Amino acid sequence: MGLTRREFVKLCMSSTMGAYLLSVLGPDFGNQLAFAADEKPVVIWLQGASCTGCSVSLLNSVDPPMEKVLLDVISLRYHPTIMAASGHLCGELLEEIARDYKDRFFLVIEGAIPTKDNGIYCTIAENKNIELTMLQAVNILGNAASAVIAAGSCAAFGGIPGAAPNPTECVPVNKVVTKKPVINISCCPMPPEHFLGTVVYVLTTNQVPELDRHGRPKMFYPKPIHEECWRRQFFDKGQFANYPGEEGCLAMLGCKGFWAMADCNKRGWNNNVNWCIKAGAPCQACSEPLFPDESEPFYGLFPLTNKQGVSYNEVIPRQTGFFEEPLKNRIRERKHGIE
Amino acid sequence: MVQKIIVDPVTRIEGHLKIEVDVEKGMVTDARSSGTLFRGFELILKGRDPRDACHITQRICGVCPIAHGTASMFCLDDAFGVQPTTNGRIVRNLIQAANYIQSHVLHFYHLAALDYVLGPDTAPFIPRFKGDYRLPKPVNDMAVGHYIQALTIRKKAHEMGAIFGAKMPHVTTFTAGGVTENVTAEKIALYKQLLAELTSFIDDIYVPDVLAVADAYADEWFSIGKGCSNMLCYGVFRESDEADPDGQKQLLKRARYTKGQFGSVDAKKITEHVKYSWYNDSASGRYPGAGATIPEPGKDGAYSWMKAPRYDNLPHEVGPLARLWANRQKDVTGLGEEKAFSVLGRHFARALETSVVAHAMPAWLDQLVPGQPAFAPFDIPKEGSGMGLHEAPRGALGHWITIKDYKIDNYQAVVPTTWNGGPRDDNGQRGPIEEALVGCPVKDPENPIELVRVVRAFDPCIACAVHVLEIKGDCEAKRFII
Fold it and tell me: What is the pTM of this model?
C-alpha cells in the first residue's frame, strides 16, 4: 500500500529546508505511485489560453524524473505538446475518453478559459468539421473526470490572459467545472513538485488534499515567503537593497514576498538551483489570485539615479511592495474601464 | 479533383494551430494555416509600468519566454537610454543561450522526432499517423532511448539558465539595465560544469541523430518544403558593450539573403501587410513602430487574424536556417540552396546552430568578472520610445514600445511565427510556411504525415503569433487564422 494521508502529511511537515518533499520521498516515489494504482491512471491534459510554460515546467521535474512519470506512472493519453497524434486522431481520442472513461480519468487544465463570444477565442480541435472550443471541452470533460487539476496560475485564477482589461473574458477552471473537485496548483509557471506531489497524494489516498481558501493544497502554499525568507535577517536588521544586485531585503525593490503564499524558499526552482529572491529579483507573487494586476508594478522604489535632477519617486507615487493604495486604485479604475 | 485536408490540431508545437490544404493528384496545390487562440497581450500591456514589460511579455510563450524577455529588455534599454554593464550583457546572453539549447533539443527530440522515429506502442506515443517510418530498427531503438535521455538534457539546460535566471521558464532576474543576479566564481563554475555535459550531448548525440534521420529520409526530404527562399536574421548574442545600431557585434550578425543576394538589414524596411488579414486596409504596409491595428472581421477576401510581415515587400523565412544561411555558415551554405532550403535542411541547421552556440559560451563565461555589477541604474523618461531586435530560437523577434506619462502607451511585437506562418501579403505572395507546403506530396489523406513534417520543421510557436491583436468594440470573431 502507498502512504496514508497522515503519513504523507507527516513526511511533508518533517522535511527540512533543502531536503524538501520529493527528496524526502526519494527514488521510491514513482514506485509507490505505480504500486498504489492497480492500473496506470488515465490523464488528459488540455491547453487553453496558456503559453505552454507549465508543461515545460513539468518536464523539469527531477524526482521523480518526467520519463518515469510518463512511462511507468500515468497513462498520458492526451497532451497537445507531447502526444504523437495530430489532426482528426485528437478529436476522436477526446470523444473516446468522454464516452468510455467517465469518472475514471484525471483532467489537467493548463491556461485560462476564454468565455467571450462563447469561447471562440480558443478552439482546441476539430472533428467532423465541428470546432471544439476550450470552453466546451472543459465543460464536457471536466464534469466527466474523477478530479480536475488546474495547473498554473492561469488555470487556477485567470493569470496573465485574465489580467485587466481581460480582453477575452478569461475565467479560471473552477468557474466552469462545478460538479467535480478542482485542485488549484498556482505559480507562474507551475512548480512540477506541486503538481506531482498532488497527483501522488490523490493516487495514494484517493482523496483531495486539504485545500486553502484559494483551492490550493495547503501543504504546498503554507505561509508567506517573508516568514522564512532567505533575506529575512536583512529585513529584521533594517538593511534594504536600493538597487538590484545590492545586499539586503528586497522590500524597496517591490518584493511581494510579504503576501505571496508559497514555498519557493524551501523548494527552489529548477532542481533547487535558484529562486527569485535568492537571485535578487523581487517576488512577483505569481502564486496569488491577483497576479499580475495587484502585484504590479513588479518593482518598487528604484530607480534613484536622479540624473535629471528629479527623482522618479517624486513624480508619481510608488508602492513599496506592501503600501499599495495608489496601485489598488489604479487597478480598480482599470477594471471598471475608467481609464 | 481537388481534395481539402484539414489537420486540427497540429500537435507537438507550441500553441494551437490548424492547417488546411488543397490536394490534387497527391500533391498540395494551396495551403492556409490558422492559429486558434487569441489572448490580446498588447491590450493587456497598455497602461502598465514599462519596467514590467520584460516580465509580462515572457508569458507570451512558455517555450521561448527568455527571447521575449530579452527583446523587451533591449527595447526598454533603448527607451530608457541605459547601457547594461559587461556582466549584465553577458549574463543575458548566457540565460538566452541556455534556453536555445533547451528549445532546440526539445524541438528535435520531443516535438519533431516522432514524425520520423517510431515511438513505443503506449500512450502518449499512440495513436499516431501511419507513415513511412524508415529508420532501421537498431537506429530507431537508439533514437527512442535518446528521446528519454534528451528529457534530462533539456532539463539540465534549464537548470543552467536558472543559475543566473532564478527560474526557468519565466525568468525573474531580467530588468532594464542588466539583470538582478550577481556574478560569483561559484556560479560560473557550476555553469561551466553543466555546459560541458550539454556540449558533449549536442556533439556526440544530437547532431549525429539528426544526421542519421537525414540519411534515412534524404531522397525526398532534402527537397520538400523549399519555402520562399529569402532569409532574414536580426542577430543574436551581443559580443560588445559598445553601441551596435547595425547589429554587427554579435555572434550571429544582422543579415539577410534576398532573391539570391546577401545584404544588410534596414529595420525601416520592415512592414506589415493586412490585405488578407481581418484588419482595415488603411493600416497596411506600415512600419511596426508606427503600426495600427484596426480589426475588420469578415473583411472580404481575408482569411487570417495574423498580419503578413515583409522585408522590402518580400516574404522572408526566419529561424536557425535563416540565421546560419544569412551569416554564411559554411556547413549550411555548403549544402547549396537546393538542399539547404528544405525540411531536413531546417533540422540540420537547428542542430548545427546548437553546437555553434554551445561552443561560443565558454569564452563568454571567461569574460565575466565576479563581484562587478550586473545592473546599471536608469531613469524612466516621461515620454519615449524604443526598439529591441533579437532572435528567438525559432527566428527573428522585434519589440517596439512607446512610453507616455511614464506608462506603456503602445507595445508591439513582431514574432518569428508571424514571419513564417503569416498569410499572403498585399501583392498576393504566400507566407513561408504556406509556400513550403505547396508541392508537398500527400500519399494518404487520412494520414497526412507529410504536412506535419513540413510545418514542424519551422518550429512554429502559435501563442507568440496570435497575441498581436487588439480588439475594439464588440466585433465578433469567428475564427483566428494566422
Answer: 0.89
